Amino acid sequence: RLWPTLHLDPLNSKDAKSLISAECSSANVKLTKEQEKKLERHCRSATTCNALYVTLLGKTIACVGSTGNIDETLQQCCQCQDTVSLYRLVLRSIQESLQSDKEKGLLREILCVISVSHNGVSESELMELYPELSSAVLASLIHSLHKMCLLTYGCGLLKFQHLQAWEMVRLEYMEEGENVISAYRQKLVEYFTMQLSRDRVTWRSADELPWLFQQQGDKQKLRKCLLNLFVSQNLYKRGHFAELLSYWQLVGKDKSSMAAEYFDSLKEYEKSCEGEESMICLADLYETLGRFLKDLGLLSQAVAPLQRSLEIRETALDPDHPRVAQSLHQLAGVYVQWKKFGNAEQLYKQALEISENAYGAEHPRVARELDALATLYQKQNKYEQAEQLRKKSFKIRQKAARRKGSLCGFALLRQRALQLEELTLGKDTPDNARTLNELGVLYYLQNNLETAELFLKRSLEMRERVLGPDHPDCAQSLNNLAALYNEKKHYDRAEELYEKALDIRRRALAPDHPSLAYTVKHLAVLYKKMGKLDKAVPLYELAVEIRQKSFGPKHPSVATALVNLAVLYCQMKKQIEALPLYERALKIYEDSFGHMHPRVGETLKNLAVLSYEGGDFEKAAELYKRAMEIKEAETLLIGGKAASRHSSSGDTFSLKSALSPNILLEHGQR
Question: Which InterPro entries does the entry link to (predicted)?
Fold first, then answer.
């Protein structure tokens, strides 16, 4: 906690008496004058007049008052001269109320396990740790312990209400010393390690295991646990930066050594990554490492993992995907801190372009990129440009705030209720069709594909009736349904719907419209997945044309589209057609990123393969040597050793299987 310890003043006799009387009254227990005077005299010393002691005293008397002997209990309480000894009396009274030795044993186990944990233990974890513990017994025990101020809940975990309760449990149950504590710690270690072995890296495992190894002083196991990339990612993303750093300090690693170990571990993990889902996960891990190193001030070492994250996302998703913009933004942030403003400006502009295409020109994500660019210009003393971008960003945020604020208005809620009523009654309007589409998208994102299909079908039917079958909105519904069928592996139905959507969009939209590019891309990938390579070629060619019109012929996005087309030709054994595409992509990458960029290296590697297959071994060797020099330079940035097995230049033929991009359903424009 960032705030200092809070010290409560001792209670005076009047306040102590009032507090005890209130506790007794809540249990319908009435004290005699003599008993009140005895309590008043007892609560005068420094250790018996604090608020916690008096509250606990009142609860103890109230608890036994209706069934037991108050004078006897009062006599026992008066022998307790501090809060810990009073807690001990409370615990023993709870033990005496239990019916069997089994329940008393379980009470001990529960309190001991909680006492050796880092942040507490959940009810479900207790029942897994002790299978003989029934939910009824657990509920009864927790009720008694909570009622008497021993345990409380925090974030769904059972923990001690006060430090004195924790101290009492250590004195009562763990007098034998470190051996008993170690046994309970080991029980928790085995439990959370078993979760890790099932590939279940929950926030609980990440919180407890490193801390338990630290308490055991086992540096080897702590290091191994920290090199489980998902454990460290979980801790870092939830803000446990200082804790993560302290673990590494205990292991005896400085910042640079830690960075190198993480990078080596990631490279090793990358060898086992196959398929789109695992590659996206890998990109997240690289990004987390890059951000962590940036926070540590290791800017030169942060570049390599952030760059790798960007390359993987461009390959596994798409160069125009919003998460690519996120990678560009993160990498640009490092270059800003590193005072490499030219590199940062180019990356921020790319992120801005992608965000505008993905979200629209008035989205808060666009405002974020504008603000970042404005700050960059300000650092370069380009005040006029910075001011223009800030004004633009401010207008976007202002509109977003108005939209957000109006959602709270009663008038809008009433209007929304009327819209839902019309929707239920089946009134055909473009707005209702759009709402049905949005509901379909929402259910799709929740992985409820059956319900999503119903809403998307209704949206399509309504749009065809109201707007006509050739309207662009119908293409949106067709596109979303096709994406859903693709997800369900109904490829023939997806193909039919994508083709209809493409036909409508080709006739209705501009040649460089983002929606047209979206359908072209996904239908091309579907054809490729289905083995219909001849049908995929014209679409990959169209994707190149669209990107040239959208970004200009020398943009890196065009180079990636060229590489994807080249890969397709290579799969069709058309190396002659692939060669000029790779060469043009290489020139764009070199002009955009410089001669030592990883994407240049990957393209050189692919050209080397083509030259080798064409029998030009000398040229192949030269190209491969250049590619390896770039790879070695990239590796030296972080101290890693393992070379990447996956291409960074797009959908390259070095991959074992083509990676299809994530399916993003389209929302309607409001």
Answer: NPHP3_hel, Sel1-like, TPR-like_helical_dom_sf, TPR_NPHP3, TPR_rpt
Pair 264, 379 in one domain: yes
**Domain-located, residue 562:** no
Buried b / exposed e across 485-503, counting CB within 10 Å, b at 16+?
bbeeeebeebbebbbbbbe
CATH number at residue 480: 1.25.40.10
Residue-wise pLDDT for 350-395, tens only, equals: 899 888 877 778 888 899 999 999 999 999 999 999 999 999 999 9
Burial tier of 472 (Cβ tally within 10 Å: 0-12, 13-18, 19+): middle
Q: Report the C-alpha gap between 613 and 623 in whole angstroms.
A: 13
Same domain, 217 and 365: yes
CB within 8 A of 82, min separation 6: which ones? 47, 48, 53
Residue 498 neighbours by CB under 8 Å, 6+ apart: 478, 479, 482, 519, 522, 523, 526
Q: Is this model's pTM higher than 0.85 or not?
A: no
- Residue 421 falls inside a structural domain: no
Q: How far, in Å, CA of 388 to CA of 588, rounded?
A: 30
Contacts of 512 (CB under 8 A, 6+ apart): 546, 549, 550
Q: Is 155 in the same domain as 230?
A: no
For residue 210, the number of C-alpha atoms closer than 13 Å in the C-beta half-sphere is 29
The rounded distance, in Å, linking the Cα atoms of 247 and 250 is 5
Tokens of 73: 């209990």
Position 280 in a domain: yes
The rounded Cα 15 to chain-centroid distance in angstroms is 49
